[in-house]
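Troubleshooting: if your tokenizer reports a length mismatch, compare your output against this known-good record of 566 residues.
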Amino acid sequence: MNQAGETVLALAATCILLTWAVCAAILVGLGTLVARTLTPSYDLLDALWIGLIACAVFLGIWNLFLPVTAIPGCLLAGIGVLGLYRDRRWLAERVKQIARFRALLGIYAVLLAGIAIRAAGPCEYYDTGLYGAQAVRWIQTYPTVFGLANVHGRLGFNSPVFLFDAALSHGPWGNLYFHLFGGFILCVLWAVVLPSCRSVIRADNPTAADWFRVIVAVALSVWSVRGTLVGTTTDEPSTLVCLAAAAVLFEEMDRHRSGGAADSHRLLKLTIATMLFALAVTFKLSVLVLALLGWILGFAILYSARHQSRLVWVVVAGAMAVVAPWVAARVILSGYPLFPSTALAFPCDWRVPRGVANMYQLWIRSWGRAGVQEAYGLGWLRPWLHDMIRNRSGFQVPLAIALCSLINLTVKRESRTVNASNAWLLLPSAAGIIFWFWESPDPRFGQAAIWTFAATLGALAIRGFTGSALMRQRIAVGLLGLATLWCLFSFGWRHSYRVLRFTNAFAGVPEAEIVARETVSGLTLYVPVINNQCWNAPLPCTPYFDANLTTHLGWHSRLEFVSDVR
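Known-good structure output:
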């Protein structure tokens, strides 16, 4: 990389870090306004997660009626600043407490810098050009459009990730928004797991929950070094949010309840975890089973805490507030609440033809089963297994952790250091793996369930194996470190950094070469010339031209797209 390229990369990474810091502060400010109404005991991460959930709810409701312009972002920022000002003393105390851990902060700063450098690279995520950038542009320009999935079926895969991208696209970032959200969520989860890594490495009496987070750190290391950070990706954010919620759930089951403020704080964390499960579903439908069963498990624990029954209603109302705008948007976009599933179809004129929805569902299943020609019967198992067995971070390492842990737990029956209640988390994760395997077993769709299952078994086994023995703890840390290196330095690891050598400019969304085509009714559609990527083309753009597509002004004077093919 020449000196100019290094300067551009450093400047871009610095801007990303500053933006992440501002976003984190705003989310914390928003979260404090809500958290204070629930309990006086909460920390910075609690407030940040609450702020993230509140933003998703606000933007989801806003886009049902209005486009996401600069106004909602400014409103959220203003409310966040107000929350920071009101709780400035509380914030100053928390910052002083964190500042005492200088070594940990230094490690975290290095991680942030590395992730920001990778986030400054070019966009290679194919789905950004396929539909992600177009989804963001529709959100910026219109309220949720009736029947938009008739233009391009994947535009029916709405996600709050696109809402966050649209909110960040106004102001100085413009069409550079796709560099921000994925890396930001990754940095937040590192803040969750690093204290546990410190406890384990220093052998500071680590709990099973600490070991759970350390195993999650193995996956985080891979995503930080090799994962998709640039683009409108929804896979990593949904996985990260699920793992954050699962870690809280595991910790709550690992502790014996006690009265007082500490117990109230833990129950607040559990309340946040259940709402994070709901948020993860809206990010990506592939985590539905894991998140739903995890939510039920968290709800059951809260319901058993009778003296905190108020939080039970918060969990229910919070989940409804998160999911309801998302379901409403899916119905408006496609006519189906769980598109591309045709279940619970609404009898509306703008509904996507059932055959088209089934085609998308088949395509997703076929994609995960190594190709369309292998989608039927069991012929897909061999090529799928051939691909999976070479996947170190998505298959080999979590499978090895789970199998070794299962053997250890079976052989070491005399161990009494394991709290069997933690094993309840195996139920949602195992069900999530079964759902993933049946629906579309591509590794990127099942990482949340796979790593939750491996981390649960691994934490139980390691805690039972090591106990308080220092040497055994060091052996476990060493093995997990080797597993991390095995994942990081597999085939193709250099590519994530070679592409940074060509970052001579901080490029935005590419422009696709398009051609205008008219439908029978006279509607003009823009179709990409070279491949099926529209990128930032004018609206409406689709790689799948439908000559029978028509449009007219629908409810609330917004566009309504209808296909005559039923």
